[in-house]
Design a protein that fits this description.
The structure is a single chain. With 410 residues, the chain is an all-alpha fold. Helices cover 68% and strands 0% of the residues. Helix 2 packs across helix 3 and helix 11 crosses helix 12. The relative contact order is 0.12.
Length: 410
């Protein structure tokens, strides 16, 4: 009887999870229609302007949850005030997004330091293409790149290093120390993987500010879409091991000599290698489908498009990972060996990601999202919808602590 009851509870939770997922999909569509839909209310999907806004929102959420550890908000799931807590944290994340985007990037860094973060500074500098729409797209692209570097280190640090080396300090001290560490490595990452490409978005190229893209010889492109695709593939393995693998195999290194330091270094190296292998495999698959790309090729024939498309597919896998974790209780449960259930979950996430891929590029996806049919439209960036979906899931999971899907633990 106990087993039968547990089975019924499991089935019930999957049903409620499915209902919750449908509700979240509707919420995402409403937000998409208001802010991003080409024929909607605001039409921010240009696409880079809308892309930069949703990436900034996601970065704000990751900053609050993964980097600062929800400080100064309560992190107890037993809190009876989950609804007020969720509303407050959601408002704070949106305000933080606006401050980061319009105050920090556009009016401080972009005005007083680095011109390409502000469309107004780009226009004031003059030159070919320095007109409002292009200037905003270029500054938006730079912001996307900068925050992608932050997302990599913000998500990695909790998995690899946790609270190390501040594990004996107060929560606020840990959060802010982690923030400065993440920012340090994020700036180095941006300078090495993205800054060279951004400096060459302009004519004449800003050759005294940034070197030519060092990856162009082996990647076949000067575009930082190579770096963006690589980081997104790495993020899939970071998120997969944190959510689906329950922190393994990295957790096993916590008791070995070297502690969290060795764990963090090895985790970073291995997840980076897995991401590079994933990018290469997807690139080979694209070559088999669309033949060998060439410099100057358009859309599917362009090397840069194939790298960003690999990142878009990784984004679909990440979305499927969170759906499996949040709404379907990380099926299968703990009855199986950790390695077996991790493999099954990963396969489900990959399969689910391909289903999302099929939906997005199908006629239904075009009708729902208002996008132009085709795999390689110049004004189509699937990551915008994917990241918006992720933001809503994370807000429910982290800010509202699963409300109304999950009840507080007794």
């Amino acid at each position: 009887m106990a087993n039968q009851s547990a089975e019924m509870t499991g089935r019930s939770s999957y049903l409620f999870g499915l209902i919750n997922l449908v509700a979240v999909f509707v919420i995402v569509w409403i937000l998409w229609y208001i802010f991003m839909h080409p024929n909607g209310v605001m039409g921010l999907y240009t696409p880079m302007y809308g892309f930069s806004l949703v990436v900034t929102l996601l970065a704000s959420i990751i900053l609050m949850v993964e980097v600062l550890g929800s400080w100064p908000f309560s992190r107890a799931e037993t809190s009876p005030a989950r609804l007020p807590r969720g509303i407050l944290m959601t408002v704070v994340s949106v305000v933080l997004m606006l401050v980061i985007y319009f105050v920090l990037f556009r009016n401080i860094i972009g005005t007083l330091g680095v011109a390409y973060f502000s469309p107004e500074s780009i226009i004031a500098a003059g030159g070919t293409g320095a007109e409002p729409w292009n200037a905003r797209e270029q500054s938006s692209t730079a912001i996307v790149y900068a925050l992608t570097a932050f997302l990599w280190w913000g998500l990695f640090w909790r998995l690899g290093f946790g609270s190390y080396p501040w594990q004996n300090d107060a929560r606020g001290t840990v959060g802010w120390s982690r923030f400065f560490a993440v920012m340090f490595f994020s700036m180095i990452t941006f300078a090495l993987l993205f800054h060279p490409s951004v400096c060459y978005l302009f004519y004449p190229p800003q050759s005294k500010a940034g070197v030519a893209a060092w990856w162009s010889d082996f990647a076949g492109t000067d575009s930082a879409f190579f770096s963006l695709g690589l980081i997104l593939c790495i993020l899939f393995w970071i998120i997969c091991s944190a959510q689906l693998w329950e922190g393994y195999p990295w957790r096993k290194m916590e008791t070995k000599a070297g502690g969290a330091l060795a764990k963090g270094v090895i985790t970073w190296v291995v997840t980076a290698a897995l991401g590079a292998v994933m990018l290469y495999i997807l690139y080979l698959i694209f070559n088999a489908i669309w033949m060998t790309p060439f410099v100057g090729g358009q859309y599917t024939d362009a090397p840069y498009w194939r790298f960003i498309h690999a990142g878009e597919i990784a984004g679909f896998f990440i979305l499927a990972t969170f759906i499996l974790k949040v709404y379907f209780n990380n099926f299968p449960g703990s009855g199986l060996n950790i390695w077996l259930r991790s493999i099954i979950r990963t396969l489900i996430a990959v399969g689910g990601g391909m289903l999302i891929y099929w939906f997005y590029f199908s006629s239904a996806g075009c009708a729902v999202l208002g996008r132009v049919p085709g795999f390689a439209q110049p004004d189509d960036t699937p990551l915008v919808w994917t990241i918006l979906f992720l933001c809503v899931i994370l807000i429910q999971k982290e800010f509202f602590l699963g409300w109304p899907l999950r009840r507080p633990k007794e």
